[in-house]
TrEMBL record:
Stated family: Belongs to the MT-A70-like family.
Ranges of compositional bias, category Acidic residues: 123-140
TM annotation in the entry: none
Signal peptide limits: none
Species, as recorded: Rhizodiscina lignyota
Region span, Disordered: 119-141
Taxonomic superkingdom: Eukaryota
GO molecular function: methyltransferase activity
GO cellular component, one term: nucleus
Protein name: MT-A70
InterPro entries: MT-A70-like (IPR007757), SAM-dependent_MTases_sf (IPR029063)
Organism lineage string: Eukaryota, Fungi, Dikarya, Ascomycota, Pezizomycotina
Length: 209
């Protein structure tokens, strides 16, 4: 695949209890109980078999620094993927205002981060020790972008297909994309997950007046 997008079920104290959700109609999903469980989950995905050379791997992360480190320092390095972009989704009200004041350390912050890496020619799983200067240069090369969008249903991320095509894929028409842990199908993409078409149900969409 030229693009793989993931929104893993990271340990998240703000997520509702799974059993409560099933019995009360909540739209949340079961999250991992620990970072250790997340670590093994990522190892078992065999992403190296599915990501094409030069392909992009985009992973939604929480504001937990351990999650970011697991993606950047373990997953990306094991796959020979270099962090190239970091997108921040600022959640807004329908009027365009942030749902919470920015710059304040809220328990649930009004933004989420998407880390985007690109598969290089280097083999993954190489030397763990790197020079500090090389790490600093890598950080400087990361392109950071901010997007604003209204959040609606818990755990549903905005559809970024158009942005991926314009910014990362050069508006290619014959690329292959896969979304893992998908909760709604995207036209032209492959979707994988326990609830891969959950939010495609018309009950989750507002009908035009």
């Amino acid at each position: 695949f030229n693009l793989i997008l993931m929104d893993p079920p990271w340990p998240n104290r703000s997520a509702k209890d799974w059993e409560f959700g099933k019995t009360n109609g909540y739209t949340g999903y079961k999250s991992n109980d620990s970072m250790w469980e997340s670590y093994h989950m990522l190892r078992n995905l065999s992403l190296d078999m599915h990501l094409a050379p030069g392909g992009f791997l985009a992973v939604w992360v929480t504001n937990n620094e351990q999650v970011r480190e697991l993606v950047k320092d373990f997953l990306f390095k094991q796959l020979g993927v270099k962090l190239v972009e970091e997108w921040m989704w600022v959640k807004t009200t329908p009027k365009g205002d942030p749902v919470r004041e920015l710059g304040v350390k809220w328990w649930r912050r009004p933004y989420e981060v998407l880390l985007i890496g690109q598969k290089t020619d280097d083999e993954g799983g190489g030397e763990e020790e790197e020079e500090e200067e090389e790490e600093e240069e890598e950080e400087e090369e990361v392109k950071r972008r901010v997007m604003f969008a209204v959040g609606d249903i818990h755990s549903r991320k905005p559809c970024l297909k158009a942005l991926f095509e314009e910014i990362l894929l050069g508006r290619k028409e014959n690329y292959r994309a896969l979304e893992i842990f998908s909760r709604y199908g995207v036209a032209g993409w492959w979707s994988w997950g326990d609830e891969a078409i959950k939010f495609n149900w018309d009950g989750y969409w507002r009908k035009p007046e």
